[in-house]
Each structure stands twice: as C-alpha cells, then as structure tokens.
C-alpha cells in the first residue's frame, strides 16, 4: 500500500479557482523531520515547541532553542516552517515553570496566557525564533488566542524583541510572517477581525472541537460526543477559511482533522489552503486531494 502511495509524493495541487493547496506536516522535535521529508512534505505547518521544554529540569536556553529552530529551518531550505510559541498548560506540565494547580487547566493558565505571566521565558523563545528566521523560511504562530488584546500584546512583545536584537546587531529575520491558531470558538467567530492583524491562520481542530462542543478531548467517557463533523464545528471552520480569504490571507489546518481522509473532501470544498498532517499521513491526504473535482495536479 505504501508503495502504491509513493506516486503521490511529487504531486502538487491547485484548486480550480487558482489557489494552491499545500500538504505539510506537524513535528514535535527534529527527529520527526525525516518521516515527513521522505513523503515530500511542502513544509512544516506546526512545530509544537513545548516538547523541547518538557522532560527536563530547566528551561532550554536561547542558544539551545536557536540551534534547534535553525536546524529545522536549514533542513527545510526555502519551505515554510511554522514555529508555534510555547503551548504549555492544559495536559502539559513543566515542573520548573511554577504552574498553579488548576481545577480546569484547559480553561486556565495555558499557552500565551502562561507566556504573558512568564514573560522572560516567552521573550527568550521569541528571540531564538527571530534569530533562526535568518537561516530559512520561518513563520511564527501564536496558540490559544481568544481575544484581540492577546494577539496585539503578543505582536508588541515580538516587535520589542526584534528591536533589541537589531540594536545588538544580531542577525535576524526582519519580515517573518506572523500567524495565529484558530482554536478558541470566539476567535473563529471573530475571524474577520483577526484576519486584519495576521499573515495566516491555522485551525487547531483538537481544541476547537473540545471548546465548541464542551467535550474534554482527553476524557474517554465523553469521547462519543467529540465530533469533528458536528455542524457547529464545520460552520466555524468554513467561516474562518472564508474570513481569511476575504482578508487576503491564507488558512491552514494543523489539528488531527487535517489528517483524517474522511474529512478531506469537505475541507477541499471549503478551499482550505494547507493540510498540516501527522506522521505518515501526507501521501494518504495527497491521494484524497487527487480525487477532488475542484482540484487539479500542478
Ligand atoms: C489543536 O488544538 O488542534 C492543535 C493542533 O494544537 P494541540 O493539539 O497542540 O493543542
Ligand atoms: Mg491546540
């Protein structure tokens, strides 16, 4: 089966409307790169950086992070690499970060919320990403944004880090695209407003589904209610993609739904711009794309 799928590896796809649709992959460390490269990935649609911070006793230094991000950027050459800033909290705990015990961690001090509190941790990561951007096509992405203020604050901090690096004469990417995850329903509902402030969206269906349906993504007792095809979820996905296109930006998806071959046809009809998939799903998704009536092979 794997062999039969190989023929899809070099294929690139466009919607009949003219938009390109790319198939990229998700990584949690540099060890995940190889599998994606073997399948001809068009980029990294999500680099989950929290794994660099987990399973250790102290925070990775700016230098350590820089080397890792640079390695990914250089390996991918001119292909886009979307680095997501730290999304810790929820189910992911870091002992050295002094995180409170919370009754509802998925609704608590997670991701950007925690980064704003631990501002030096955040700035260290932003500096490392900006510096690595000099060596490849790095994009930055902020997770778990619900309110406009959070996005504007994150962008301001990024600008501050940029200026400090420039003042210090340290090489950096000065025009690194900035995107946000759409994974909180309020952000999806207000996607028109957010689209004016970012270069791209990436829909995080794992959280978007959990928050839209009020179904814990980790709880087996309610897993029957965790439904990517709930009309409420599909409505948010469609309106987010539409809002992005109307504002002239692109919209990808990096949640599990992007890897689900049952969903490909639906998402292609909505003209999703990028499928960022897990592990070995690239060729499977490319196969599905090749069957779509509104898609042509480049
Ligand atoms: C998501 O929520 O869909 C997502 C991609 O992020 P994570 O699974 O890391 O929360
Ligand atoms: Mg998420």
Automatic annotation (TrEMBL):
Has UniProt tagged this entry with the keyword Chloroplast?
Answer: no
Instruction: Tell me which cofactor or cofactors this protein depends on.
Output: Mg(2+)
- The main enzyme category here is transferase
Q: Which reaction does it catalyse?
A: L-histidyl-[protein] + phosphoenolpyruvate = N(pros)-phospho-L-histidyl-[protein] + pyruvate
Q: Name one GO cellular component term.
A: cytoplasm
The name under which this protein is listed is Phosphoenolpyruvate-protein phosphotransferase
**Binding of Mg(2+), residues:** 183, 207
Q: What does this protein do?
A: General (non sugar-specific) component of the phosphoenolpyruvate-dependent sugar phosphotransferase system (sugar PTS). This major carbohydrate active-transport system catalyzes the phosphorylation of incoming sugar substrates concomitantly with their translocation across the cell membrane. Enzyme I transfers the phosphoryl group from phosphoenolpyruvate (PEP) to the phosphoryl carrier protein (HPr).
Q: Where is the active site?
A: 254 (proton donor)
* TM region(s), chain numbering: none
């Amino acid at each position: 089966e794997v062999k039969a799928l190989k023929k899809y590896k070099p294929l690139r796809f466009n919607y009949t409307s003219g938009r390109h649709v790319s198939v990229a992959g998700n990584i949690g460390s540099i060890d995940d790169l190889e599998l994606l490269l073997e399948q001809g990935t068009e980029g990294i649609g999500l680099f989950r950086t929290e794994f660099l911070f987990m399973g250790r006793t102290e925070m990775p230094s700016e230098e350590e992070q820089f080397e890792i991000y640079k390695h990914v950027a250089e390996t991918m050459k001119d292909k886009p690499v979307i680095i997501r800033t730290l999304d810790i909290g929820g189910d992911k705990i870091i002992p050295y970060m002094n995180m409170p015990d919370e009754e509802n961690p998925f609704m608590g001090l997670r991701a950007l919320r925690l980064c704003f509190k631990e501002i030096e941790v955040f700035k260290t990561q932003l500096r490392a990403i900006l510096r690595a951007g000099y060596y490849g096509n790095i994009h930055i992405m902020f997770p778990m944004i619900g309110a406009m203020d959070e996005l504007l604050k994150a962008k301001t901090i990024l600008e501050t880090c940029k200026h400090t690096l420039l003042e210090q004469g340290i090489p950096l990417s000065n025009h690194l695209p900035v995107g946000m995850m759409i994974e909180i329903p309020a952000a999806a509902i207000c996607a028109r407003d957010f689209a004016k402030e970012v270069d791209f969206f990436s829909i995080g269906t794992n959280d978007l589904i959990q928050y839209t349906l009020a179904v814990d993504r980790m709880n087996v007792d309610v897993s029957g209610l965790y439904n990517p095809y709930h009309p409420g979820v599909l409505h948010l996905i469609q309106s987010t993609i539409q809002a992005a296109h109307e504002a002239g930006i692109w919209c990808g998806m990096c949640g599990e739904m992007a890897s689900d071959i049952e969903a490909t046809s639906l998402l292609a009809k909505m003209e999703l711009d990028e499928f960022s998939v897990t592990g070995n799903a690239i060729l499977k998704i490319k196969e599905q794309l090749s069957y779509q009536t509104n898609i042509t092979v480049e």
